[in-house]
Amino acid sequence: xxxxxxxxxxxxxxxxxxxxxxxxxxxxxxxxxxxxxxxxxxxxxxxxxxxxxxxxxxxxxxxxxxxxxxxxxxxxxxxxxxxxxxxxxxxxxxxxxxxxxxxxxxxxxxxxxxxxxxxxxxxxxxxxxxxxxxxxxxxxxxxxxxxxxxxxxxxxxxxxxxxxxxxxxxxxxxxxxxxxxxxxxxxxxxxxxxxxxxxxxxxxxxxxxxxxxxxxxxxxxxxxxxxxxxxxxxxxxxxxxxxxxxxxxxxxx
Length: 253
Fold this sequence. Notes:
single chain; alpha+beta; CATH 3.30.1330.80; 6-stranded antiparallel beta sheet; 21% helix; globular
């Protein structure tokens, strides 16, 4: 292969990845307690420069901004991840925003999401999201390291540590996923937060943003990497509606 051909293939790959959401494993595998990491975090960064996820045995929250990866642990603090650590579940993209606008009045999380829905009304495609701003209030959580035999996910969520931040600047990143990926990914919004000083963050639960800039990208491709090419899912009954079972367990808890 000559150098021109190699460059052409690389350019084609870059073009394809720019509009692609790449996902490591599937939501139902996590709900079925398949929590062992399988793809090294360093390899995750090959698929995108913006993303969210978790780490081996669901230890904490993964945040990727501008190609840098951060690890929020269950103490609410941010750590530099070991890139040889493996992720059981992550969603990433190469972020090149289609739209960007300023927010100049206080908004809670529901209002921010409603504004994104108005700017990107087609709910049947993936939407990558980045919001940077100043926040009067942020509420997050981060899962602690799980031990075998792994507890049901509903139990993990009920006992997850939560954190509150006030008067903080930072960035929200994540995705709005289409409804038809239910059981593969989280339908609707899944967002994480990282403070500008890289000391606080986690899975975003609530916020009030005073002002900021919102950027979004519509992604028309969806690429799923199954753990061990699907081998680790052998024996897991994925014909059941595990999402429904999970939601029922959470509500009954």
